[in-house]
Amino acid sequence: MDIWDELYAAASKVRRGRTISPFVEAGQVGAAILTKSGNIYAGVCIDTASSLGMCAERAAIAAMITAGESRIDKLVAVTRDGRVGSPCGACRELMMQLDADSGDIEILTDLETKKTVRLSDLMPDWWGRERFDEASRKE
C-alpha cells in the first residue's frame, strides 16, 4: 500500500455520514493529511444550520495543530461518493497560511492514476507570500 492509498484509507475510515442533532450533520466528507514529520491526521466535515461548520480538511488540520504540528506534506479528501476531491478556497487559504513552504503540499486528485496537484498550482499569485518573505528577513 502506497502513501496515497494509506491516506485514502484513513480519510475513508472516519467518513461516516451521521446526524448529530436536528442542526448538525457530520462525516459526509473525510480528509487525511500527512505531515512533514510523517504523522497522519484525519477529520470529517461538520455541517451546521447556522453555517458555522467546517470542512474535513480543516478538521484534520485542527487535529494536527492540536498535536503540535503545522507542516503538511500531502492531503487527501474523500467525498460522499468515495471519490477524491479538491479542497475548497477556505481550506486552501488556511493551508497556505500555515507555512512558507505550503505551496509544495501535494493534493491527490485521482486515486486510480495517483495524479496530484501542488497547492501553489491551485493558489497562483497568492497574496500572502510577502509576509513570509518579510518574516524570514527578520530572522
Compact summary:
The protein has 139 residues and is of the alpha+beta class.
Fold blueprint:
Elements lengths: L2 H12 L3 E4 L2 E12 L4 E9 L7 H11 L5 E7 L5 E2 L3 H10 L7 E5 L4 E4 H4 L6 H10 L1
Parallel strand pairs: 4-6
Antiparallel strand pairs: 1-2, 2-3, 2-4, 4-5, 6-7
Helix content: 25-40%
Major sheet, described briefly?
Answer: 7 strands, mixed
Q: What is the CATH superfamily?
A: Cytidine Deaminase, domain 2
From the helix content, strand content and strand pairing, which structural class follows?
alpha+beta
Low-confidence stretches: none
- What distance lies between the first and last C-alpha atoms, to the nearest angstrom? 41 Å
Taken as a percent bin, the fraction of beta residues is: 25-35%
Q: What is the second-level CATH architecture?
A: 3-Layer(aba) Sandwich
Q: Total number of helical segments?
A: 5
| CATH topology (level 3) name | Cytidine Deaminase, domain 2
Question: How many domain regions?
Answer: 1
What's the alpha carbon Rg, rounded to whole Å?
A: 15 Å
Can you count the beta strands? 7
Residue-averaged pLDDT, rounded? 95
**What is the string of helix and strand elements?**
HEEEHEEHEEHH
CATH first level: Alpha Beta
What does this structure look like?
The protein is of the alpha+beta class and 139 residues long. It has a single domain, classed as Cytidine Deaminase, domain 2 (3-Layer(aba) Sandwich). Helices cover 34% and strands 31% of the residues. It is globular, with a radius of gyration of 15 Å. The mean pLDDT is 95.
